[in-house]
Amino acid sequence: MARASLQIRKHDRIVFLGDSITDQQLYTNQVEAYLATRYPELGLEFVNVGWGGDTVGKALVRLERDVIALKPTLVTICLGMNDGGYCPPTAAIAQTFAEGLGEIVRRLKKARVRVVLMTPGFADVVVNPNLERVDYNRRGLRVLADRVLAVAKREKLPCVDLHELMNEVDARAKSSVPGFTMAQDGFHPEPAGHLVMAYGLLQALGVPPWRREIVIDAHRRTGRCADGKVRLEHDEDGITIEVELDQLPFYVEPDARRILPHLPMIEDFASIRLVVRGLDAGAWQVRSGGFRAERDAADFAGGIELGTLWDHPSVRAAQSLRRFVDAKARAFFQCWREIALDGTDGAWFENRAALRIGARMAAALDGQRGPLQSRGRRTVRLRLFPRSVAGDVVADSDFIPRWALAGPLPAPWARDALDGEAGCSVPGAALPGAWQSREIDIATPGDNLQGVFGPNQQCFAYACVEIESPAAQRVELLVGSDDGVAAWLNGDRVLAKLDAMRGVAPDQERVPVRLKAGANRLLLKITQHAGNWGFCVRFAGLKRALRIRAPQV
Questions:
Q1: Cα–Cα distance between 308 and 37 in angstroms, integer?
Q2: pLDDT > 70? residue 364
Q3: Got the DSSP string for 250-316?
């Protein structure tokens, strides 16, 4: 389809109208999160009024109550999946659908509401024999999709042919991934299918492409990024790159990512490419927080995509925004459907205040997105190291990946299995018992100790690392653990929380410490009740990068 002109305006209240596919709160939340990310300055509001089983007739019945009463400025409409009755529609069915859709558009226009249309999506007849038997995709939904396109042409409305788009993407995916489907039941898309719908709706809304390229010349020590500020710092170990983007990246939930090889969502709407020229030949490692990737200098010169580096801190910040959107959508649904309607249409007339409360609450929450989109969260901070030193260096906010590990050791947690835990944290002290030198998973630390020791419960493990600091530094030790943790630095116990029961997250404990110039040793004890078992450690406030290594074992 030809891209429409931009339909989004300042302070728009966008209402999503549709059937159970809209009711799933997936493509709508994806679009909402994207537009909130892309246009934070516009103060947009979003409300989802999708209803399972809806047809154009049912949508007409509730149009005034559920849509126009919300005073929207823009409504997107996705109907038709149910209108065909899951069989090839007769001429009368198709005509009734077209007339009903036209009447919805007429009433919305009369209320001075702008409208964007979406054709019904697709039916995966490969996974649903009933849909295959009646050829509901080609002979059913295609007929209704053509009627939507006709209404859009007559009323001069933006429209996306989701039916064609989803069939094209599904065909590409099926050709390369045996057994692939976007809809296990044949017609309700999963998150991957909803991302295709979101892609199409963004096109219908006229949203222009969003691509950012960070270009670094390592030899000249210069950097640039359109709509972003770039700062560079070189030291004896590597290069620090800090880019302040004009907006957050776009977060794609894990269940939807499998469609990305077959859909140019990132390339068209969320690309952040890092290009680094002038690096010495050989392998280099790029890091940021828990994210690490190793590429050849030639790969960096050609550019690597940061928009799909899901563990990067700025992308995790975008994930927080998406969680906020999901929570807000659920909260509105509860006020609208579970309180205002109480299961019956008639109840609404006795409790319409709940609908107004839900709408005001949703608008208020939309107005509170600012902190989630703050400038600091849009900052991409990266460190580039030559491979020859990358494994030995941690900079400010880098997680420590290389440890000597001992365990599992049976509870109780207070038991000293080293015959002097404080003494074992002194630089150069011997480590008694059986230890192994390992590089742990720091990108997804939730189960990294179980990955080393296997499933365990009612036990604990030790982790030890040698730290070489080029100067004395007062810093913060940041620790996350599943479950409890204790820590010793250079013979001093600096943290004791052995009885905690929790999942791991970065920086659950923040402890001011002093690193000596030269050798330091950090010893941790991580307890395990049951289930997942993991930890992560980094330092904040480092003025100089550290050299780290696992002690000899």
A1: 16
A2: yes
A3: ----GGGGGGGGGS-HHHHH-EEEEEEESPPSSEEEEEETTEEEEEEHHHHHH-EE-TT-TTSHHHH
Question: Which of 255, 236, 242 minimizes the C-alpha distance to 383?
Answer: 242
Q: How far apart are CA 326 and CA 328, in angstroms?
A: 5
The predicted model scores a pTM of 0.82
Lowest mean pLDDT among 20-29, 124-133, 313-322, 379-388: 124-133
Strand arrangement, sheet containing 239-244? 229-234, 239-244, 379-386, 283-288, 291-296
User: Coil, strand, or helix at residue 404?
Assistant: strand
Closest CA relative to residue 24, chosen from 253, 278, 318:
253
Q: Which domains does the chain have, with CATH numbers?
A: 13-208 (3.40.50.1110), 211-312+377-386 (no CATH), 391-549 (2.60.120.380)
Q: Distance (Å, rounded) from C-alpha 180 to C-alpha 174?
A: 5
Does the CA dihedral 365-371-373-377 come out positive or negative?
Answer: negative
Contact (CB, 8 A) for 475 and 521: no
pLDDT exceeding 70 applies to what percent of the chain?
95
146-150, 259-263, 321-325, range with the lowest pLDDT: 321-325
Give dist(CA 309, CA 306) in Å, integer.
5
